[in-house]
Amino acid sequence: MRTIIDSSFYLCLIVFSSLATVKGYKNASESEYSNNNQCHTGQIEYKLTKLEVLTAERSESVKSELRENNRRLQALEWQNADVGSAIESLKNELSRFTSSGQISYSRPSSEDKDVENLNEKLEVLSKGIHLAVAAIKLNNVELKSMKQDLASVTNNTRKIVADYHQLLNKEFFNDALVEMKHRINVRHVSSDKCNPQNEDKPKDCVDLKKNGKKSGVYKIYPDNYHQGFMVLCEMEASGGGWAVVQNRLDGSQNFYLGWRDYKHGFGNLGGEFWLGLDNLYYLTGHEVNELVIELVDHASTKKFAHYGSFSIGSEMEGYSLKLLSQYQGDAGDSLTYHAGSRFSTKDMDQDSWEEGSCAKSHSGAWWYNSCDTSNLNGKYLGGELPDNFIYQGMYWGEFRGAQYSLKQVRMMVRPRDKAEENF
Predict the structure, then answer these.
(1) I want to staple 368 with a disulfide (CB 3.0 to 4.6 A). Which of 43, 197, 271, 351 is the partner?
(2) How far apart are CA 305 and CA 329, in angstroms?
């Protein structure tokens, strides 16, 4: 038991020390970048691979020790059963001898001494059996306690191993490297701003609108991400200058995806897509934006919901819906219920529903509370839904409800204080 507990504790130390190691790599890389203007990511990835192998070996060692302790406990239970059988046999023998002794009292007086000796031996044997029974009962109590302790340690260890597999894997470290590179680049944004060539780079679709650009795909360079990214700009609707962050038209793109896809974005900017939570944070995390959501049902009825203030948090904050207010429109307000909630996917449950996962239950990814009044990243199912598909579709509670999957949805944002025209 002590070995298992120590191993579990050691595995915890590996998890936290691994995270600390990543932080150390990050700091070292940032320092080296500032001196040499380059990142030796190959060496870092090699060290991360070694770290992954080490933690995997330790995990397997803990599992082996758990199996060995289970084997020993089973052997102890078998021995306990054998001792119990032996005690029953002795009890039967004692009963037989006692009966024999009682009969022998009627024998001639010359045998009285032998009978007395036999009775004394039987009495000693009886006491020994009672002591053995008491010891077995005590052993059973201790065995039960050991099994409970082992079960607790096993569950805790499995949880640690599961958390390790979720956190300490290659994808986790690759994401950490990408984030580290981004943060290193962000440190040099201020120097880039001093470069006259960067003054003409559009920060958002509003800048492109002011330069006379039409609706289309462009590269923008938000203040906090100087490398920029591609975005579809809508220049005609509601005054223009909108960055489209979600577009659903025909169900050609699967939206029931995991955390990494929603973090980095997926789909085709010329069709159905999700721009990515990272990009949405770059657009809205440092200045207040407007959000407009356009909805179309299968009868071509169009509705909209506009929020005058919209902003989400960083990944460390779970991309939470930090700011949402000033609703207007004819679709009804089916998003305010989600204000303050973190973003959840089928493999990253951050909702407020303690009994389950809203993302899995509703086949989507959203700022689930417990669970939702809208599910615009749900499955593309098409129109009225049977009872067994309720809440599964792409729906807006105040427009058609949860038992109806919409035909088209488009979500767009733009800086609130830069728009040339009010919504």
Answers:
(1) 351
(2) 5
* Mean pLDDT of all residues belonging to the chain: 79
List Cα–Cα distances, 24 to 17, 64, 180, 184, 345, in angstroms: 10, 31, 11, 14, 30
Closest CA to 239 of 208, 209, 283, 194: 209
Residue keyed to tokens 């973003």: 343
- The per-residue DSSP string of 139-195 comes to HHHHHHHHHHHHHHHHHHHHHHHHHHHHHSSHHHHHHHHHHHHHHHHHTTHHHHHTS
Q: What is the pTM of this model?
A: 0.60
Percent of the chain with pLDDT strictly greater than 70: 63
DSSP state of 318: T
pLDDT at 407: 98
Rounded to 5 degrees, what angle do the CA atoms 70, 60, 166 make? 115
β-strand partners of 325 = 309
Q: What is the pLDDT of residues 262-290, one digit of tens each?
A: 999 999 999 999 999 999 999 999 999 99
CA 381 to chain centre: 27
